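Consortium newsletter contribution from the modelling node. Members have asked for a concrete example of what our holo predictions look like. Here is one, prepared for the 4-nitrophenyl phosphate complex that several groups have been discussing at recent meetings.
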Amino acid sequence: MTSEPKLGVLFVCLGNICRSPMAEGVFIHLARKRGVLERFDVDSCGTGRWHVGNPPDHRAVAVAFRRGIQLPSIARQLDPKTDFKRFELILAMDRANRDALLVAGAPPEQLYLLRQFDRTTEGHQETGLEVPDPYFGPEDDDEGFERVLDMLETACEGLLDALTEDRADPA
Ligand code: 4NP
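And here is the predicted structure:
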């Protein structure tokens, strides 16, 4: 029996300890619930390298855990030599990450802001399509991470709708 090749989906932020590992965990969680996880090769990375080898931020782990979502990621930096071949779809969390990806040689036709797939953002300017960085929020306050997780759930539902309708365009 031959299996279909998997579609590579890479989530990218700056540090790879907050937004993109949360996006990766949410996508895996939702794809598993829909019974389509085996169709995808899912990973995340950062454009920066400060946190390479680290698990996600404890606030990200806590808010995800409360919703039954695991975050399997260990931080790594983008590898332009292999990532643009392995991953057909590259989802940046904000415009600065997207610009860094373009500078690193990401093919523009493979590159999106993740929230372009969020149907609630239709008609928004690009500034309204960013996932804000919760890292510099209070150490003992998960509220910023909860808001980011809400956004990621909505965007990943839209992304999965697009991908399972055999359509890779934003909503
Ligand atoms: P992330 O958040 O890009 O969502 O992982 C950040 C984590 C760490 C830093 C910046 C953003 N930092 O400067 O260390």
